[in-house]
Amino acid sequence: MRKYMITFAAAVLIVAGGYWALGKNHAPAADGAVVEKPPALAQQHSQPSPSPVVGEDDDEDKASADSAKRQTGDTLTSGSADKQGETPNQAGSGAMNTGAKTQQAAKPAQNASAGKSSSTGNAASEAGSGTSKTGGKGFINSYSVEHVVSNPESIAVLVNKTYRLPAGYVPPDLVYPNVPFIFSEKADKRKMRKEAATALEKLFDAAKNDGVQLAGVSGYRSESRQKTLYNNYVKRDGVKAADTYSARPGHSEHQTGLTIDVSGITGKCAAESCFAGTKEAKWLAKHAHEYGFIIRYPEGKASITGYKYEPWHLRYVGAKIANEVTSRHITLEQYFGQAVPVSK
């Protein structure tokens, strides 16, 4: 009998031990325990583009220049990367993936506080050294991050590969400046904002008094027009290549109404690198700032601006900013504290 009782007790102990072990293995996690979640996939972006080979200007300018040169007996330089027609690229629209953020941009060095006239040059004194979004360590002027500017109507607005204009933005006061163009039609690309147009007329008059006859090539350009041009480039060359020489929709300075490409009255070398050696380009480099304009993409600054040297591309910023940018031999990015590379 004693033998059976010992065996029964042993069995009970074994069963009890099994239940205890089972309960321990299924005990709930301790309060406050944190379960690490797998990291979310980061938004994919293409690598920052290398320094562009062609520049921000497009076939529209080349087509106008071509027309003017045919009238004067000149021909376009062979080998230009901008010979594409202007047929909309229906397939190309899907290729454009800018990854734009719909929030407002951090004000680039307080330039959002600038007003709408040339007096906005006071933004320089408020610029400061920039932040991680507007020029601090690690900032790269590329499409990998996009911000929508909060001050699109400011004369001092900064538009580049990182800062874009609001979707569908149209300047409020576009007018036709009373200056000659290398084409005859009364197209939108003749337009500029009123203050910039008035300044351009004074600049052209001053140049003429010095024996230099200038002509407009391309002024205002809508976002939809830029989209057509950009998509044509994407269809022809792919996104990566197109980004090295053409602005994406919303990122073109021409859309601000504050920019114009100019040439000599004959249209020779219009929107082409050979314009740099002309008397017109030399006059502009010396005097444009006196009328509130800067050479927006100066020589040797492609790593900062994102575009090669364009001596024909004038941007109106007002006299104060223009004088400082020109005298210091800097870019608009550097003026607002964004002196950082566009590519590594």
TrEMBL record:
UniProt biased composition (Basic and acidic residues): 62-72
Segments of this protein annotated with the region Disordered: 38-137
All residue ranges annotated as the D-alanyl-D-alanine carboxypeptidase-like core domain in the record: 190-318
Top-level taxon of origin: Bacteria
Record Gene3D superfamilies: 3.30.1380.10
InterPro entries in UniProt: DD-CPase-like, VanY-like_core_dom, VanY/YodJ_core_dom, Zn_M74/Hedgehog-like
Biased composition (Polar residues): 73-123
Listed Pfam families: VanY (PF02557)
Classification via PANTHER family: D-ALANYL-D-ALANINE CARBOXYPEPTIDASE, PEPTIDOGLYCAN L-ALANYL-D-GLUTAMATE ENDOPEPTIDASE CWLK
Name of the protein described by the UniProt record: D-alanyl-D-alanine carboxypeptidase-like core domain-containing protein
Native source species: Paenibacillus cookii
